[in-house]
Every structure is written in structure tokens, then in C-alpha cells.
Specification:
The protein is mainly beta. It is built from one helix and ten strands; from the N terminus they run ββββββββββα.
């Protein structure tokens, strides 16, 4: 397994539901913001999914960082990158949309070998 990339926060807002705290975000965290806020790639990678086929996630992006790590960004109102696109850490890849309760939220996940891990434990302190 490769070492974790140097992660960055995907959105500047506060975490309003921690890892495993909310059934709607059990596999990640919910980050509050304003509708339309930029959602940024947490690390360099390649977009492996861009779409809305999973119910309840709105427009969803999944970015693969290497053979070990991927990130997922759910509840977007607009996707700014397509499948196959190479993205850089900090690049705006989507616009924040409405999550549970019609509130502007980002559902963010980090997965190691397919298993969700607590993003807050990996993201830089702020």
C-alpha cells in the first residue's frame, strides 16, 4: 500500500457531521458551505466517476489518487471535470450543492483499498 498523499480540505466550511455520525454520511463527513461554493480536489489524481447514478448523492465525483487511495465528493450541484480528467490538489472540480435536508453540504470520503477511513484523521488540522 502506498503512503497517503498530502491531503487538502475539499471545502473551507465546518464539519457538521463527523465520520460515522450521520446515517446520510456514515462513510464520510459532511462539510457545510454555501450553494455554489467551489469543491476542490483533496490531492492529485484522475477522475474515475462523474455522474449521478447513486441515489441521494446528487452529482458525485470519485477521484483515484493511486492504487490505494481514492476520494469521493457528493451532493454537488455541478461537476466541472469529466471522467478521465487529471486533477491537481486544490483544483476546483465541482460546485457545492444541496445535501440532506436541502442544506448546502459536501459529502466527502477518503477510501483506502476501498474501505472508508475518517477524513478528519488524515486532513491537515485547521
Amino acid at each position: 500500500a502506498g503512503p497517503a498523499p498530502p491531503w487538502r480540505w475539499p471545502a473551507p466550511g465546518p464539519v457538521v457531521a463527523g465520520f460515522g455520525a450521520n446515517p446520510a454520511a456514515a462513510t464520510g463527513i459532511l462539510v457545510a458551505g454555501a450553494a455554489g461554493d467551489p469543491v476542490q480536489a483533496a490531492a492529485d489524481g484522475v477522475v474515475v466517476y462523474a455522474g449521478n447514478s447513486l441515489p441521494g448523492d446528487g452529482e458525485l465525483l470519485i477521484v483515484k489518487h493511486d492504487e490505494t487511495w481514492l476520494t469521493a465528493y457528493g451532493h454537488n450541484s455541478a461537476l466541472l471535470v469529466a471522467e478521465g480528467a487529471r486533477v491537481r490538489a486544490g483544483e476546483t472540480i465541482a460546485r457545492l450543492g444541496l445535501g440532506p435536508g436541502r442544506r448546502p453540504l459536501l459529502h466527502f470520503e477518503i477510501r483506502r483499498n476501498g474501505d472508508p477511513v475518517d477524513p478528519v484523521a488524515l486532513l491537515p488540522r485547521r
